[in-house]
Amino acid sequence: MQFVDNTNLIVRAGDGGKGVVSFRREKYIPRGGPDGGNGGKGGSIYFVGDDHLNTLLDYKYRSVYKATTGVGGKGKCRNGSNGEDVILPVPLGTLVHNVETQEILGELLKDGDKLLVAHGGNGGLGNAAFKSSVNRAPTQSTPGSSGETRNLYLELRLITDAALVGLPNAGKSSLLGVMSAARPKVADYPFTTLTPHPGIVNIGLSVDEKPFVITDIPGILEGAAEGHGLGITFLRHIKRSLLLLHVVDLTSDDIVKDVEIFNKELKNFSSEMVTMPKWLLGNKADLLEEEELAEKTAVLRELNSEVFIVSAKEKQGLKTVSRSTREFLDILEEKKATTEHIEITDTIQADTIQDTGQTLASKTSDKSVI
Q1: Which of 329, 292, 293 is CA-nearest to residue 308?
Q2: Which residue range is the domain that position 14 belongs to?
Q3: I need a surface site. Which of 118, 188, 255, 330 has the fewest CB within 10 A?
Q4: Residue that finishes a domain, picked among 109, 126, 156
């Protein structure tokens, strides 16, 4: 399946149905009075997060989506039916931008998240709505209001637990292939990976431990933040990652320069990304002699406190990386749960104090009246 992570589209909500002018006409009932019904509401357009999707491909070949118009009112005070809403499923991690105002309308991060992007028009009023004591036979009605039309830009930022990043040909796809059931393209030349590839990792984990998602990000060249190579096309996907696994080719002549190039590109793209948790994975350890491997391992440890020496070909050190990643993610989840618990507790305490203060104030007020 083709991977598409950004696209433009136009959404048009339905117009409201018009109100109708009608009077009751029945035998033996003179001056039956107004009975014109209201028009129905136009259909709205929503985006909904769907965890079964991982691309915006469906919106590449169709760029306009319209909701149906509300039905006009009828006599006998019958209101028109509402237009049908349009529900557009998108992958988790999708940001919706308003092209005209340059604002972000929202993002969908969880399965089932719903975002209203175009509000349907309200139905018009029939003449029955204008009946009053001084206007017993109104002849006016109103048309329905127009539905919203918006020019949108959709941007997908993949949500992943860990991201395999680094320079081209470092062996990221090979690592993904042996650590998960994913089957990315692997070859002995740079840029074999042209799109992000996610995979579910359970290697080295016990039955009780939760698998995690790891994504292979295409290689980053020097000057990527300025548009070289694949440019910043896929750098934005790294932002959603909880952990960066920087894969370093141990057979490189200058591994320090390789690490510095990648760090520089991260900083140029976004200063926030420099502070993201990052581990170094020295790959292709099977191609080095023990003495050279020990020297380069020492060099990497000077650059980062978390260093893992691995070999995708020999499947060396992969279980350690997997277990360490799972432990890191568990710690993050515990911190998040603790923070949420503290916030909820603080809210409850604040509400209790406020309610108590209001009660005391009320009693004091009552006593002063007496």
Answers
A1: 293
A2: 6-23+33-156
A3: 188
A4: 156
